[in-house]
Amino acid sequence: MSDDGTGAPSREAPFLAALYERLRERPRPWWSSAVLRESFPTAMRFHWFEKRPDLRERVTHALTGFPKKALRNADAAFQAGLVERVVESGDVSVEAWEAAFDPADLVTHAPPALLWATFRHRFPWTDAGREDQELLVWLLHELLEEKKDGARTTSIMTPLYVRSAIDVRAWQEHIPLEIRVQVDGRRLRKELEGKTFTCRDELAVVKIERIVEHLPAAHLKGILDALERVVPALAGPPETRAADHPGEPEPNGSNPTSDLADHGTPS
């Protein structure tokens, strides 16, 4: 979407808005109001709202009580200074500061790659707790959920693309044998019926919840790499992508985009 809020909606905006809302409803220590104020301070946010004086006016008035008419023609630096003053003085909590910003406004005007890279950087990949795992389950369901997109129904990622982004050795090592036996049994029954067994069928047996339960979170980062190929706006300019996620190898050492012309087509 354009800076002034017009134009066709972007593919990444609804996804990021849903993710931001989910994190606000169920905050994690690594995505707290204090962390977000450090990562995206008032001056930065007001810079995003440079062409939306109405949003800056609304936030500043809500947090400071400063008269709206006096704020209407004020510049962003002045408004940000007022907001920072009431937060730093303790008159307004960092939680109230964060709540004053509508997630839909933030994801519409912020650089999507910055929001996404911050999420990836902050997530505790090597020490994910139960609530972090629940977030990953939600995220994967969000990527796979088929939604109406104009005249067709599509998902952000297909079961094939998600499954191919998980290292096959990690899959064999961490998915319990009894679950893999269930998959083989279902595959044989389908083939005996003359039907094709697909990754959609495999995930229907294994279940996203069990994948997240048994696979260490770090092994799921390949799915996020694949997502950035499906939605390039999340990755940012090509020259910055390698720096955003240092040390993260390509899933399976391959590029599954080569034989998938449309990752929103069911498979």
Q: What is the multimeric organization of the chains shown?
A: single chain
Structural class: mainly alpha
Q: Give the total of beta strands.
A: 2
The percent of residues in helical segments reads 55-70%
Q: How many helical elements?
A: 17
Radius of gyration: 22 Å
H/E series, N to C?
A: HHHHHHHHHHEEHHHHHHH
Distance between the termini: 29 Å
Gross geometry:
elongated
Number of domains: 2
Extract low-pLDDT stretches. 1-8, 246-267
Q: What would the average pLDDT be, to the nearest integer? A: 87
Strand order of the largest sheet: 1-2
In percent, how much strand structure appears in the residues? under 5%
Main β sheet profile: 2 strands, antiparallel
Topology:
Blueprint: H1 12-25, H2 33-39, H3 42-48, H4 53-64, H5 68-72, H6 76-88, H7 94-99, H8 103-109, H9 112-122, H10 130-144, E1 147-149, E2 152-154, H11 159-164, H12 168-174, H13 177-192, H14 199-206, H15 208-214, H16 221-230, H17 238-244
Antiparallel strand pairs: 1-2
